């Protein structure tokens, strides 16, 4: 549906489908921007030109007027080139920020000491490109911690720039467990000059800078992925240390339920499904399951079947527990390879929250950082399968070569179900 008011929108994200993806952020950044464009808004989307993006399969061209941009972060200077591509399924431009020094890494995200600068430069590049293109956004939309300093810069470095005179900032939190924290010793990378007072002073005294917190504090509006999540992150249990900053913003924080991109996820015409279904045809999912089992050389069965859990690498959070029946104790057995890891998401944020008082009691920033890193390392070590077995009471940490034997033994050990004494009641599996 065409929008009544046409807006100019500068969106900045660390990942965008189909160019680069590690999670749901990429899906939202892509689908939301495409829908805005389809509604008639002028959207310019910026992301890094990672080395993982296949140049030979990408229809991208250099923007000649945006080559060799010299961008500074403290005492570090980077030269970036801007490429222009098109978001599939639309005419909307995606601007790719190229810098081998920053984005030619084995993975999208790293634990390198300059991780914060990688995304400071992305954010600065987006704002500088707006200036050079004379693109005057009504909205600057930041996604997660990676681009969370845009609202602060709009209130400081760019507050007198006519290009951003009408700009309002929106900060969207996709996962509050990732906050982009770095040492206060690197604060000069923000180049705030006399506006440094806008930084969270208590955090500076504690020897740290938190990117996400500054996005929350300085954005004109803060959004999250659902009303439920907005309520949850306002509590100490789920706020990961951000609950006070969120409370300070009051009604500026809103939860907007993520939608489904039906152009991408539509079982009526999904190219990956051998059997299609639409509204009122959910029972055809049983046909899909039968089809899948047959293609895997497995015999379809009626009624209940045993559920075995084998963790090869990571068993983090509610998602892993849901796949294994609702919890690691729900399956007939749960075992793990020695490479398995268990735990909740966002262990770094958990340490910031759970050990806040202990860290505040350490006056020396270097010692405080050392304490923090040790606690994070301890949590990851405790989450190793060999450590967690006695805590979660998983059944065994096994040699990978024993996997087949465990499955066969499990199948032979499952007791036969008791005869049903009541009428069977069909239901639809929500998964």
Describe this structure in words.
Strands 1, 2, 3, 4, 5, 6, 7, 8, 11 and 12 form a ten-stranded mixed β-sheet that branches. This protein has a three-stranded parallel β-sheet with strand order 13-15-17, sandwiched between helices. Strands 9-10 form a two-stranded antiparallel sheet. The protein is 32% helix and 18% strand. Residues 427-431 have low confidence and may be disordered. It contains 15 helices and 17 strands. The radius of gyration is 25 Å and the shape is globular. Strand 7, helix 4 (150-154) and strand 8 form a beta-alpha-beta unit. Helix 11 (347-354) packs across helix 13 (365-382). The relative contact order is 0.08. With 431 residues, it is α/β, with parallel strands linked by helices. The protein folds into three domains: 8-255, Glycogen Phosphorylase B (Rossmann fold, 3-Layer(aba) Sandwich); 270-303, no CATH class; 305-416, 2-enoyl-CoA Hydratase, Chain A, domain 1 (Alpha-Beta Complex), CATH 3.90.226.10.
Helices and strands, with pairings:
Layout lengths: L7 E5 L11 H15 L3 E7 L12 E2 L6 E5 L2 E11 L6 E6 L1 H4 L11 H19 L5 E5 L6 H5 L13 E6 L7 E3 L17 H5 L2 E3 H8 L2 E4 L2 H6 L10 H7 L3 E3 L28 H12 L12 E4 L2 E3 H7 L9 E4 L4 E3 L3 H8 L1 H5 L4 H18 L2 H8 L3 E2 L5 H11 L18
Helix pairs in contact: 11-13
């Amino acid at each position: 549906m065409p929008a009544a008011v046409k807006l100019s929108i500068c969106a900045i994200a660390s990942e965008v489908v189909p160019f680069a993806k590690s999670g749901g952020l990429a899906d939202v950044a892509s689908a939301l921007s495409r829908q805005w464009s389809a509604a008639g808004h002028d959207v310019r989307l910026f992301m890094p030109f990672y080395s993982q993006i296949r140049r030979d399969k990408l229809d991208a061209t250099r923007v000649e007027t945006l080559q060799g941009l010299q961008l500074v972060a403290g005492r570090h200077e980077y030269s970036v080139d801007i490429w222009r591509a098109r978001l599939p399924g639309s005419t909307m431009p995606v601007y790719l920020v190229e810098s081998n020094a920053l984005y030619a890494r084995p993975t999208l995200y790293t634990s390198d000491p300059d991780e914060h600068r990688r995304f400071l430069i992305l954010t600065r590049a987006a704002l500088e490109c707006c200036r050079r293109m004379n693109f005057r956004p009504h909205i600057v939309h930041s996604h997660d911690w990676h681009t969370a300093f845009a609202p602060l810069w709009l209130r400081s470095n760019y507050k007198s720039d006519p290009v951003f005179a009408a700009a309002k900032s929106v900060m969207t939190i996709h996962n509050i467990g990732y906050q982009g924290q770095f040492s206060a010793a690197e604060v000069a990378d923000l180049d705030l000059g006399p506006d440094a007072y806008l930084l969270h002073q208590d955090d500076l005294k504690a020897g740290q800078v938190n990117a996400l917190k500054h996005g929350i504090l300085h954005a004109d509006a803060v959004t999250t992925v659902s009303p439920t999540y907005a309520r949850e992150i306002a509590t100490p249990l789920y706020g990961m240390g951000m609950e006070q900053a969120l409370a300070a913003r009051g009604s500026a924080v809103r939860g907007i339920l993520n939608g489904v991109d039906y152009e991408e996820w539509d079982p009526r015409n999904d190219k990956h499904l051998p059997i299609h279904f639409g509204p009122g045809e959910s029972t055809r999912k049983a046909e899909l399951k039968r089809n899948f089992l047959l293609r895997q050389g497995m015999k379809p069965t009626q009624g209940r079947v045993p559920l075995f859990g084998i963790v090869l690498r990571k068993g983090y959070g509610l998602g892993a527990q849901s796949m294994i029946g609702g919890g690691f104790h729900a399956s007939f057995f749960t075992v793990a390879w020695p490479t398995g890891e268990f735990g909740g998401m966002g262990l770094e944020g958990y340490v910031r929250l759970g050990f806040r008082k202990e860290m505040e009691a350490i006056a020396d920033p270097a010692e405080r950082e050392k304490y923090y890193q040790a606690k994070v390392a301890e949590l990851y070590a405790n989450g190793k399968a060999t450590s967690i077995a006695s805590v979660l009471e998983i059944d065994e940490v096994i040699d990978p070569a024993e996997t087949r034997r465990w499955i066969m033994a499990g199948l032979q050990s499952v007791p036969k179900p008791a005869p049903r004494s009541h009428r069977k009641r069909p239901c639809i599996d929500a998964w």
